[in-house]
Amino acid sequence: MKVQKVYTRLTKITKATVSLLAEGVSYEELAIIDGRLAQVIKIVGQEVSLQVFSGTEGLSTKARVFFLGHPPRLKVSEELAGRYFNAYGEPLDGKPPVEGDYVELGGPTINPARRSQPSELIATGIAGIDLNNTLVTGQKIPFFANPDEPYNQVMATVALRAQSDKIILGGMGLSHDDYLYYKKVFQHAGAEHRIVVFLNTTEDPPVERLLIPDMCLSAAEYFAVKKHEKVLVLLTDMTLYADALAIVSSKMEQIPSKDSMPGSLYSDLARIYERAVQLPTGGSITIIAVTTLNDGDITHAIPDNTGYITEGQLFLRRDTTVGKVIVDPFRSLSRLKQIVIGKKTREDHPQVMNALVRLFADAANAKTKLENGFELTRYDRRALEFAREYSRELLAIDVNLNIEAMLNKGWELMAKYFDKSETGIRQDLIDKYWPVKSP
Question: DSSP assignment of 357-420, as one string?
Fold first, then answer.
């Protein structure tokens, strides 16, 4: 490691950043300030500003500073699989450091000329995703959820059920209980051999969260590009990542944009999400990221910018009629599902999906009529009964079925509560798949 000149005078100290006069340094370069890791975030002439990951408390203007001559980086190899690391890529599991080649974090996205059209289905076993909002390799999509909803349990479920070669989990601001929950679930399922975890907890400095997505995606690119594997990257929680961006922006005295977020929020988020890719070699990186909301507010700058970048969104909400958390069929959308449904899945998938959601909408209208004191028709009452069973048997996040079983269950529910003519499904599909009642 080439060590540059040692500097011994800081010109400015804030809660998260320091400034000094230095030469020959570059953006994102790492430095050590009295034993604390820092990173260059601004250069104006000879004045260099650095964010100090563990904070600046206790630093004096006479602190010793030397630059490492490289940006954050990660050693990558097959040894990453089954391991737990902190935001710097250091082991958290008591095992030796990974041997391998260094790659710099935050590199450019893969050249569009090297990309292929996403075309492979990713099955999760969750009907609210696989049936209504089917995911495709190379896709980027967020989970929008309120903080009190069990999004970490959903992410763990996706990690275990998803048909992928590697799962890379990036935890930002995770509680210690959530960290132990993930670890326990992975261990009990015997799935740790294909999972890589990079972790920042609530007890760690918030600014460290800025390293987590790049750590995850650098590891993902190794497995996707070098090993031609299907990689699923799970990031939770991108709201806490954006809050860390705001902390640094504020300490840099930058003028905030909407909702006190930095003006660079869109490009900061896009830099992460746009690294989702389908490669001609068969390798792929698919990104699912939790974005927590404030009372369901999707107009906040974080979900608002996220929606412009990603290819849809998945909404969690609690269905009080059945007491379960479901993937909301009205507010969720996968813009790439048309690539695979009815092609990589059974021919009736698009028609069954649309019919079920339309009938669920009829039930929502019936519920509104009931709440406002209007008399319900027989059809309304059947729709409400259907909706309860549809939520409990298909939309609930604890249901684990393959896609063919989901479609069969959908046909069963329609046949139980509706006539064939009320479904709006093509006659040839009804003739082929409508359940035959036992004599």
Answer: HHHHHHHHHHHHHHHTTPPPPHHHHHHHHHHHHHIIIIIBTT----HHHHHHHHHHHHHHHS-H
